[in-house]
Design goal:
The chain has a six-stranded parallel beta sheet, covered by helices on one side. The chain is built from seven helices and nine strands; from the N terminus they run αβαββαβαββαβαβαβ. The model has no long low-confidence stretch (mean pLDDT about 95). The relative contact order is 0.16. It has a domain of about 160 residues: Rossmann fold, CATH 3.40.50.1360. It is of the alpha/beta class and about 240 residues long.
């Protein structure tokens, strides 16, 4: 699954470079992205022509924390490829999160995103847009509050020892900004994602299942493993 997703992403990056001389991508984190990123860094891509954006980050969590998404992407991606044209991380330690959102928004609004790599949460979230997600804001990055289900997922995946250790706020790329991407590649592993995946793909589009908005994206490709896909309707 992750290998296939990485190869597909690499093809999109190469196509963008061939067409425009550069590519702009969005990278996610979490357990769903581990295999994909581990493969992507081994593929033949001219990274000097790639600008990357960071999907989301906890507010107030230091880079040194094991759950820091900046740390995750630095160690699992940026340190393993030749220097990129640019990598615009979300600074969750900024003393002014709203200003950090504005800083990132000013950068990304001038760059077309060729491919956004995302996952979905156990509560159906897309990035850190928990239900009920804001489907209307045009701001590229926003400050969000994390609901308990989202925070429990972080504990369950081993990123934090207890629920109280999980930050309650984050900076997240907005739903509309994700949907502006030319391609969206969504990687979803594990049986625990089966129910939200079913609601994402087969349910109504609703901000109570934020990832369901992907039904409206013209170029969204899902990469699933068997446990995650176990509740989906099967064609005869």
């Amino acid at each position: 699954m992750g290998v296939a997703a990485a190869r597909y992403v690499a093809g999109l990056i190469k196509a963008a470079i061939a067409q425009r001389g550069e590519a702009n991508i969005v990278l996610a984190t979490g357990t769903s992205q581990l295999e994909m990123l581990a493969t992507l860094v081994t593929l033949d891509i001219d990274w000097s022509k790639v600008t990357a954006f960071h999907l989301d980050e906890y507010i107030g969590l230091p880079f040194s924390h094991p759950a820091s998404f900046r740390k995750y992407l630095t160690e699992r991606f940026a340190d393993k490829v030749p220097p990129l044209k640019a990598f615009h991380y979300v600074d969750g330690e900024s003393p002014d999160p709203a200003a950090e959102c504005q800083r990132l928004g000013q950068i990304i609004q001038n760059l077309p995103i060729d491919v956004a790599c995302v996952g979905i949460g156990e509560n159906g979230h897309l990035a850190f847009n928990d239900p009920p997600a804001d489907f209307d804001t045009d701001e590229p990055y926003i400050v969000v509050y994390l609901d308990e289900a989202c925070r429990r997922q972080q504990v369950g995946e081993g990123w934090f020892p207890t629920l109280e250790d999980v930050p309650r706020q984050a900076i997240s790329m907005s739903i509309r900004q994700i949907m502006k991407s030319r391609y969206v590649v969504c990687t979803v592993p594990d049986r625990r994602k089966a129910e939200p995946l079913k609601r994402t793909i087969e349910g109504l589009v609703t901000n109570m299942v934020p990832a369901s908005i992907l039904q409206q994206h013209p170029n969204c490709r899902m990469f699933l493993d068997e446990p995650a896909a176990s509740l989906l309707r099967r064609n005869p």
